[in-house]
Amino acid sequence: MRRASDGRVIGGRLARGVRAVRRERYVRDDVYVGYHHEDVEATHRGPAGERRWDVLRPRRGADGARRIALIDSNVALHQLDALADGRVRDVVICATVMEETRARSRSSYERLREMCRDVEKRFYVFSNEHHGETYVEDVAGESANDRNDRAIRAAAAFYRRAIPVSACERVTLVTNDRANARKAREEGIDVMNVLDWMRTISDEASLTDLVVPGGGAEIPDERESKRARAAGSSSAPKFDEHLDAGSIKEGLAKGELIKGLIRTSLYNPFEAHVTNEETGESVFLSGRAAMNRAFDGDSVAIEILPESEWLRPGSKIVTSDIEDDAAATTSTDDESGGLAPETAEETDIVGAVATSAKSGVVPTGKVVGIIRRNWRERGYAASIDMGKDGKGPKATGAGFTTRVLCVPSDRRFPKIRIQTRQLEGLLDQRIVVVVDDWPADSAYPEGHYVKSLGVIGTVDAETQALLLENDVDDRPFAPAVFACVPALPWRVTEHHLAEPGREDLRDLLVCSVDPPGCKDIDDALSARELDDERIELGVHIADVTSFLHPNTAMDEEAARRGTTTYLVQRRLDMLPGALTTDICSLVGGEERLAFSAFWIVNKSTMLPDETIKPRFTKSVIKSAAALTYEQAQLRIDDATLNDDLTLSLRRLRDIARRLRKRRMENGALTLASPEVKFEMDQQSSDPLDVGMYVTRETNQMVEEMMLLANVSTAERILEAYPAAAMLRRHPIPEQKMFEPLLKTAKACGIDIDPSTNRSLAATLDAAVRPGDSYFNTLLRLQATRCMSQAVYCSSGQYAGPERMHYGLAMPLYTHFTSPIRRYADVIVHRLLSAAIGLCPRHESLESSDHVKAIADVCNIRHRNSQHAGRASVELHTLVFFRKRKIVVDARVFKVRANGLIVFVPKFGIEGPVLFHEEKNDAVLDEDAMTVTSGGKTWKIFDQVTVQVEVEQLPAHRSRLLITVVPDDTPRGEALVEAK
């Protein structure tokens, strides 16, 4: 073993105020090379007696040679989709490459690490910086990149010496860097670019299409040369060049630029808004030129235009990509037919409140720089652009690459240009494409093909697409995760009963009340009389943390998934099924571990006695019954039933009524959101019927019990850990966010006071219209959209009123009641266990920053899961209407200059009704919220009769088509032939 000095800062640079630290690095000559072949010298098999495994097992490729490939850092950073393909194996990744990848892109590094952990991939990380023959000293004046390239070449040369031809014919350095390749050849190293390397593995287009063109490839990128030729044309589209990082920083410091996230309009892909991070003010962007190659979610630098150039956001419905002449595409936003949005995040509420009441123009700007890209590494669901005629592009010839445009499923994103050799096989496919670049002289971003999801329009393919679009993982659990699950059949044992702090409550009458078909039962309830004056109320939650321990593979996976995702046809669990539906689930008639909370309720008030603190304990329970909401309601309402279970349910109902009444008196809001349920064909899995979800009083009963448990838990963990408790807060909306609601209310002659949640609740309750029972629901739908979503946070982030839950009118709130399906609840269980002295607080929960980091991930996963669930409902609604035309009642929910946005209560869908363009006689009155066309006037919330069907579009695409029909048209459905 020898010592070498190392003064490098890997992946970094020296700057003013930063001192280079010279370190000693120990190097040795017996570092394992990953290949335990008999012809490989023993020195390279690692230290004597040390256990090694045969990682590399090179097999003969398409070129007939056994090959081990070493990749450079640029390949690791930019060719991950190609590297991830199952056919790519036997790759050596130098520690130098891993370090540089980690320094430049944490997400790329994690993905590369995942490949290295996959034993089937046979990727080996070689410690080249610690081997005497591969460690290279720094050279004065040499850049960090050049030094790293030299180190990788040294490793490639060493591998060729260490592994004889008899063991492996080819040891190849894979690089797209021309200079690196040239130097490698001069040093006698076998070298290839990525595309040529892939062709030695397989010449199938499904593999070579994964290669990202360009990036310094030795073979000139075909798209670059074509773009260069196009640039010489006067008609070549051009964008303004982006400012460099230094200019952006200077502009922000001087106040000449503003920074914020760009959010593309749900209604019009050519309009966007950027909210100033410092002031919260919104800036309007109009047109692709102003958006200047920014993608939704990018962090951008904005220049405000002179006030004379300010514009007014469009008031027309945009249903196709008119500006860049795209074919109409399937869309899930509410302007083209889909499930009605629920919160401010899902609408253009920011843009709406920015509009000036006088002129309608708003502060307008343009993107001048990209601070941070938000391109999805997993890619975008898309389809090949078939053009206006629907015939699609033609392949340039067998085996040749064809350049085509792909249309993302999410119309907020522009078309993406890719190159492919398998065009004919992709025309009817939902595919995944990744964006690689968007040069200023290209009308579209450049990308590459990743994979096909299936035939467009099929439930399986579109479900895969919506999971991708919402970043929801549906991969099976890894063996290491299953290894954490107790063996089945599992039973409560004497060991569990003897655990300190766990009470035996198996004789307590407990039951659960859930939706039909529920398998992952988190909660159960009890209400027993103690005497003539008191009732003991109990909420019992699955004790998941007795099985889910920190620093295990299962806990890491649960933290990454964050939540269970519920689709129409299936459930994507946060935890393995053995836990969610068996071991942890509080199924009827089985003994289960629980975390119980108890309150003493005064019979005189039917409210918890506030002089007695809630009591928490671990327990063992045996649920007497797992009831549905309907079954529980029937028991409660049946006067002939007076058994112990029914009497317990009635006590729960009575307590819930008083709890709910108290919440309403405190200003809790009763909001509205469309919940849809499907009746599915058990054979075909097609939807047979769809309608709004019916709620019963038992739904409210369970809700009140869960709210009580969550509030009491929040108070207990905050008392124990004031700076690091996991809470759930609902921010108080800014008054300007209510302007759309106030405008609607004014047009309807209604007074709404949103100054406090109490005044908002009171005025919403009073907002009724005689003879129109649904009018109040429509107002509440609009009120819901004026508010942001509730979010998880650490108590150390906020103080006092900032921690409150606005919608529930609760000073403190958290999530405790669903640990089977929410990771935030798992964290709360761990905090509560520590707070009541059952265990020490885990080190990961000791600081506010740590809790905040967990909360941030939970927020993202919860939002993604909600969006995926809604997208699944929209997909199945579309499938349902493919065979049907249905005439149904609807309500005008918005008025536009060229049509209406209508809400269909029966199906919970919202979509556009377009006026005939040739008439062009529509008159919009935004103050009165009316629009007149063809001699007829429609007003906000008017009742209309509509026909809902599926409209077939080019390239196997479809969308919901809603048209107004005469009011005397018979209601009902007519079956149509599926297309």
TrEMBL record:
Residues 212-242, 321-343 are annotated as: Disordered. SUPFAM superfamilies: Nucleic acid-binding proteins (SSF50249), PIN domain-like (SSF88723). Residues 67-182 form the PIN domain. GO terms for cellular component: cytoplasmic exosome (RNase complex); nuclear exosome (RNase complex). Pfam families: OB_Dis3 (PF17849), PIN_4 (PF13638), RNB (PF00773), Rrp44_CSD1 (PF17216), Rrp44_S1 (PF17215). InterPro entries: Dis3_CSD2, NA-bd_OB-fold, PIN-like_dom_sf, PIN_dom, RNase_II/R, RNase_II/R_CS, RNR_Ribonuclease, Rrp44_CSD1. PROSITE patterns: RIBONUCLEASE_II. One of its GO terms (molecular function) is endonuclease activity. Coiled coil: none annotated. It is found in: Nucleus. The keyword Transcription regulation does not apply. PANTHER family: EXOSOME COMPLEX EXONUCLEASE RRP44 (PTHR23355:SF35), RIBONUCLEASE (PTHR23355). This is Ribosomal RNA-processing protein 44. It comes from Ostreococcus tauri (Marine green alga).
